[in-house]
Structures are given as C-alpha cells and as structure tokens.
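User: Hand in any protein.

Assistant:
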Amino acid sequence: MRRRQVRGSVGIGLRREFLADVLAQQPAVGFWELAPENWIPRGNEAYRQLDQLRERYRLTCHGLSLSIASPDALDESFVLQIKSFLDRFQIPLYSEHLSYCSVQGQLYDLLPIPFTEAAADYVAARIRRVQQLLERPLVLENISYYAAPGQQITELAFIQQVLEQADCQLLLDVNNVYVNSINHGYDAKQFIAGLPSHRIVYGHIAGHTEEAPDLLVDSHGTEVCDAVWQLLDYAYQQHGVFDTVLERDFNIPPLTELLQEAAQVQLSQQRADSEMA
C-alpha cells in the first residue's frame, strides 16, 4: 500500500439551487464538481457563469451518461463533446460511474455491471478507448447497487481488474461502500483496504436513506451519517488524504448548511494528517 502524505481539498457538488449564492458570496470551498451534461446544452450564459467560477475556484467534472459498460457501441461523438468542454474550461479531471445506463436508449438509472472477468475485460477496453479520445485519464466511481446478476467474482476483485487492465483512476465513494456493505453483507473496511492507493484520485461522501435495517438507498438526500464519517476517517488512514466532494442532490439545504457539513470533511482530513505526521 502506498500512502500519499498530501493533505486533500474539500469540494462540493455544484447545483443550480445555490449557484447564485456561490457567485455572489464566493465561499471558501476548495473546488466545485459539476456534471457536464447539465451545462453543455445551456449555452453562453452558463459558460459565462463557469468562467466566473473558474477565476476563483478549481473545477472537476463528474459525468452522468457515458454508460461505460453498455452493450451499445461507445458514443465517441459524445466523448469528444465532453473533451471539448473539459478543454474549454481547463478541467483536468473527468470522472464517471463504473456502471451502464443505456441499452438501445437511455435507461435513466445506473445499473451494475455483472461481476465477471469477461465483463471486466470488456469495460477495460472501452475505458482505454475513452482515455485515447479524452487525452486524459478516466476516473471511475464505485457505484451503489442492489442486485448482482451473474456474479462470478467479488465486487472488489472486479474493480481491481478493471483499474489494472484499463490503467485508469478511481473515485472512491465512501458512502457507496457503506451502503453496499450493509445491503450485501461484506466488511466495508476490508473492501476499502483492498483498493489500490495509487489509483485513488479523489472521493465522494454523501447521505443515504434507511429503508430497512438491511436495505440502504444511496439517495444523496440526507446528511452524512456517523458510520460513513468513521469510514471516511478509515479511508484516509489507509490511503492517505485525498480530495473529497460532499454530494447533495435532493432535499438541498441552504448553502450555509452545506458549507458546515463540508467543514466536517476538512476536520477528518486534518485528523488524518496529524495521525500520519
């Protein structure tokens, strides 16, 4: 395991609900993460807003519709459109979900890839092609999932194989690990410890909804729970401190409340830094 003794930065997922407040107040946030699909169609006014943000902040992109594991042919024109957007705003990082969301049309959900060696080979080949088109590494996020059809290897072994074969990078979503560990009955800490440190570029943390003691839903609509905060601490201990984004997609509170929650990420980073000093 290779530890990176570099203190990370704290980001927040950029949402239109509080964009005006961000532009007016310029809060102390390390960076903003945005979905390019929500900005590309909006034209010049949106681009002017992003230019204002870029003057003050670092930006990263987290996509929604690449559908890296789809049985459909890779949409290379879409990938090139993303590349143009990243180049236009000088955004080095583009992350997506290790999943698929299209089969002869958009499915509007992130579906799990079968955990098989053949699927890992297939996805890795598509990732390599995307990286050629983007002229930058692709960062893949471990997703939450609620069924594992056709599983032959573990989720961890599948992720390890994809990362190695594609020579791509990892977005470690700590909440997704916790949700999956409850829903599928595995050890969250063991899972995190098994991930390759040198592949982790940044992370996500978010809230989930408890539908039953053994069924959690990755809703991004609540505050982060104590168990997930503890797992974030553990991830920093295992892999070193990495940039981390607070996500909130539903029941979005005022920006001031999000900033308070993001400050907890910074406290976790500071604790990990002092322990590793």
About this structure: The domain at 10-276 is CATH 3.20.20.150 (TIM Barrel). Residues 192 and 235 are 6 Å apart (CA to CA). Residues 255-276 form the longest helix (22 residues). Confidence is low (pLDDT under 50) at residues 1-6.
